[in-house]
Amino acid sequence: xxxxxxxxxxxxxxxxxxxxxxxxxxxxxxxDGRSVGTRERAQRYGLTPVRTLNEMxxxxxxxxxxxxxxxxxxxxxxxxxxxxxxxxxxxNAVSPATMTNIxxxxxxxxxxxxxxxxxxxxxxxxxxxxxxxxxxxxALSAIAQIFAGxxxxxxxxxxGIGKASALKxxxxxxxxxxxxxxxxxxxxxxxxxxxxELLDIAKGRTTSYLTETAxxxxxxxxxxRWGPEMREAAYALEEAGLPTDLADAAATVMxxxxxxxxxxxxxxxxxxxxxxxxxxxxx
Length: 283
Fold this sequence. Notes:
This protein has eleven helices and eight strands. It has helices at 11-21, 36-45, 53-59, 72-80, 96-107, 137-146, 163-191, 195-203, 216-239, 245-255, 267-274, and strands spanning 3-7, 26-29, 48-49, 62-65, 87-90, 112-119, 130-134, 153-156. Strands 3-2-1-4-5-6-7-8 form an eight-stranded mixed β-sheet, sandwiched between helices. Strand 2 (26-29), helix 2 (36-45) and strand 3 form a beta-alpha-beta unit. The longest helix is centred in the middle third of the chain and has 29 residues, at 163-191.
C-alpha cells in the first residue's frame, strides 16, 4: 500500500486526496496550524492525521503539495528541512522558474521532484480534473498508481521540471484573468446603469463570461489565492519575453477582493469592493 501525504487539504487538496483513497492508498495530513475548515474537510474525506510534518515525511512514499502559490516555496523548505528523500510533487500554480527553485530545494535533501498541475474543478463523481506531471519516469508511474481507478486523470508530460507549471499558467492566465476582466466590465456598466444592455450584447455571442454574473462572487472569494497565481503567471510571461500587463492587471483587480476570502458575497458587495483600494491583509 502506498502512503500519500497531502499538504494541505484545502478544497482542491482534500478532494484530490479523497480520490487517492479509492486505490487503497493511505492518505496522511498534518493538522498542526491548520484552520477549523481544513480540519473538517480532512475528517469528512477520511484522511489520517499525523502529529507533525516530520512524522509525515517519515511515513509518506509520496508527498503532494497543494497550497496557495505564495506559500509553495516555504512548504518545500519545511519538507526539505525534515530530510525527506522520496517523491515530492509540487501541484501548485507557480511559474517554471519558481518550480525550478522548488526542485532545487527538495533535490538537495534527496527527494525525487515532480512538477505537477491540476487543471479542472475539484474531483468528484461528476468532475474529472487532469493532473499533469513532469519529472522522473519512475516517480510519474508511482503517482499514476495512486490515482488509478479514480476521477483524477494523470497525464505525463515529457521535458522535465517546468512543463506542468507552464501548462497550468498558460491556461489559468486566460481563464482567471478573463473572469476578472468580465467583472470589471460589468462593474463599469453597472455604474452607468447599462448592465442589462451589456448582458444583452454578450448573450448574442455563443459564449461569454460576461453572462455569468453569478460567478463573480466565486472569483472574488478565491482572489486571495488567484491573485498570487496571476503574479506567477506574470513572472512566467516575463521569462518568455511576453507582455505581463494583463496578468499584472488581473492580480491588481483581485487585490481589491482579498478581504472577501472564503466568503459568499452577493453581487452588490463584489462590485462595491472593486471601488475600494486594495486590502493590506489578505488573511
